[in-house]
């Protein structure tokens, strides 16, 4: 039995190491970790050290799964469709307690054995060609189909062909700007959204509630936030309430009428072209829309127009699940297709900015990093006036049949500054811990926002109860998150290179709409286990322990505890 209990860890996962050692497992350490035994260091050990990893590259594959020497290229390095697992957020280093060098000695004794269990934060650190049937590994290959922004965007576009589900009900509409057809579809969507937004703004003014935008001071920008890409909603350059462009509402109404006809399939007999290719001068329309939406220019509606706008928006809402959440400022968020931790993300309200960026990402050199444009959720639930998102874990233990486990505990991540659609800097809109750690809490932040910017789901449920929405978590949010996760997995199932004996823990990120509808943003294949707060220290340790219970202990004892995991799907 001891021969079947050799494990290897790549990356700082002290909880996994302690749990496996407590189960009687022996670690076969990477050459670059732990103390080296000078009196045992022979030619073979020297060779391991020389070929050991220095920067997380392909050499780690050799050290990890080919201990007897002989270079083996990482699986998928020549496959243009293979994305290596994105690096996890920097973990907290912890010393390996081994005062008597017992674990180093045991590691040396198993130096020529292939590990039976591998936990790594890099997919390309495991060579699947060398794995034996009974090896257990914490990654699958080709999961980029749903764990990269570009992959998830493409997979969910195919979802209606796979099952009766509409991704627009849980995933903000998304376009790959490096694909010509999708870039054209994005341009059409941006224009149509601008027309709908104008009707919403006009109705607000007609109700004696003029849309007021605030003046934006120079915002401090953190590392990696390119100010030239940030569009702020500016102070009005027109006299307050002064009406401009009386024909603008009529143009927007005509566009929306034609679009409604297309959505209702009334265009089949009339062969009506897209309303974005005819009807109005779009360049002129958008420039005028910007003045109304972002600079405070006024609009005037007649009573007849007011009723027509209301009817149009009501009819469009029946066809467009995202009409409410999309708001009225036409904000879009642009993301590099294969990045993580908030790197390179840009918010904009201007079509020309998006197209300028798209033109720069069509070169072959940008093939693996194409940008995606996704509709920003403008009408979202805030806590104490602050934006947050939810990190929700789930585990896949098989793809054939697809077997999915949902973790009942999760946590919320807060921004450092109050939410505002008039100020689009990172500190207000990107909830990633790796982004927010660069910002101090704003003086105008509500003091009830936690100082470490983290809440548990239990704290969130208490907050919902205070709002009189005690049932929202179990009746709306959890079912919505489960359904979104399953739809994403099923949409990409045929793309994943699966093997028996593997498993993978994922972290899905969700926003919550004003109506408590969860909106899936992305799925991470290497969710951070960094204890950035007391809440995450406890929850991240728990989910790692429970994962081992599920994938190891349960094999020997099907009745053993699986902690907070819940089986939600098995084909």
TrEMBL record:
It comes from the Eukaryota. One of its GO terms (molecular function) is protein-glycine ligase activity, initiating. GO terms for biological process: cilium assembly; cilium movement. It holds the Pfam family TTL. Residues 31-44 have a biased composition (Basic and acidic residues). The keyword Nucleotide-binding applies. This is TTLL3 monoglycylase. Residues 31-79 are annotated as: Disordered. It comes from Sterrhoptilus dennistouni. It catalyses: L-glutamyl-[protein] + glycine + ATP = glycyl-L-glutamyl-[protein] + ADP + phosphate + H(+). It is found in: Cytoplasm, Cytoskeleton, Flagellum axoneme. Keywords: ATP-binding, Cell projection, Cilium, Cytoplasm, Cytoskeleton, Flagellum, Ligase, Nucleotide-binding.
């Amino acid at each position: 039995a001891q021969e079947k209990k050799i494990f290897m860890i790549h990356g700082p996962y002290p909880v996994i190491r302690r749990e496996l050692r407590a189960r009687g497992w022996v670690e076969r350490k990477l050459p670059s970790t732990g103390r080296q035994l000078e009196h045992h260091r022979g030619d073979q050990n020297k060779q391991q050290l020389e070929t050991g990893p220095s920067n997380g590259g392909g050499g780690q594959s050799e050290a990890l799964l080919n201990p007897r020497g002989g270079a083996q290229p990482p699986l998928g390095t020549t496959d243009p469709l293979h994305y290596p697992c994105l690096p996890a957020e920097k973990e907290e280093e912890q010393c390996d307690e081994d005062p008597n060098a017992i674990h180093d000695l045991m590691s040396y004794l198993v130096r020529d054995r292939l590990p039976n269990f591998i936990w790594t934060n890099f997919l390309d650190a495991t060579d699947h060609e060398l794995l034996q049937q009974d090896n257990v590994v914490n990654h699958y290959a080709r999961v980029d189909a749903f764990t990269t922004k570009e992959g998830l965007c493409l997979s969910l576009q195919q979802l209606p062909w796979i099952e009766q589900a509409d991704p627009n009900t849980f995933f903000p509409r998304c376009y790959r700007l490096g694909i010509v057809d999708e870039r054209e579809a994005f341009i059409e969507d941006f224009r149509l959204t601008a027309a709908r937004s104008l009707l919403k703004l006009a109705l607000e003014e007609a109700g004696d509630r003029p849309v007021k935008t605030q003046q934006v001071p120079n915002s401090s920008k953190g590392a990696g936030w390119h100010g030239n890409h940030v569009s702020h909603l500016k102070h009005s350059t027109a006299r307050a309430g002064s009406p401009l462009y009386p024909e603008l509402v009529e143009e927007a109404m005509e566009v929306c009428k034609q679009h409604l006809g297309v959505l209702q399939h009334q265009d089949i007999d009339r062969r009506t072209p897209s309303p974005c290719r005819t009807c109005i001068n779009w360049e002129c329309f958008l420039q005028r829309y910007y003045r109304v939406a972002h600079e405070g220019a006024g609009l005037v509606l007649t009573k007849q127009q007011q009723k027509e706008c209301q009817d149009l928006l009501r009819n469009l809402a029946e066809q467009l699940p995202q009409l409410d959440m999309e708001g009225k400022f036409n904000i879009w968020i642009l993301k590099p297709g294969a990045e993580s931790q908030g790197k390179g993300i840009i918010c904009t309200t201007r079509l020309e900015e998006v197209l300028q960026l798209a033109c720069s990402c069509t070169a072959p050199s940008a093939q693996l990093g194409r940008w995606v444009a996704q509709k920003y959720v403008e009408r979202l639930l805030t806590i104490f006036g602050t934006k947050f998102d939810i990190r929700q874990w789930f585990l896949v233990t098989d793809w054939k049949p697809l077997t999915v486990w949902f973790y009942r505990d999760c946590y919320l991540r807060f921004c450092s500054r109050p939410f505002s659609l008039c100020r689009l800097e990172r500190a207000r809109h990107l909830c990633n811990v790796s982004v927010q750690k660069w910002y101090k809490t704003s003086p105008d932040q509500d003091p009830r926002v936690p100082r470490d910017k983290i809440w548990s789901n239990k704290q969130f449920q208490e907050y919902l109860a205070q709002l009189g929405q005690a049932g929202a978590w179990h009746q709306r949010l959890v079912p919505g998150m489960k359904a979104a996760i399953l739809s994403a997995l099923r949409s990409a199932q045929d793309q994943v290179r699966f093997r028996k004996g593997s498993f993978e823990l994922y972290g899905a990120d969700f926003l919550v709409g004003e109506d408590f509808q969860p909106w899936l943003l992305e799925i991470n294949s290497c969710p951070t286990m960094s204890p950035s707060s007391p809440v995450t220290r406890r929850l991240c340790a728990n989910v790692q322990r429970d994962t081992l219970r599920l994938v190891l202990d349960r094999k020997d004892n099907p009745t053993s505890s699986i902690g907070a995991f819940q089986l939600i799907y098995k084909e």
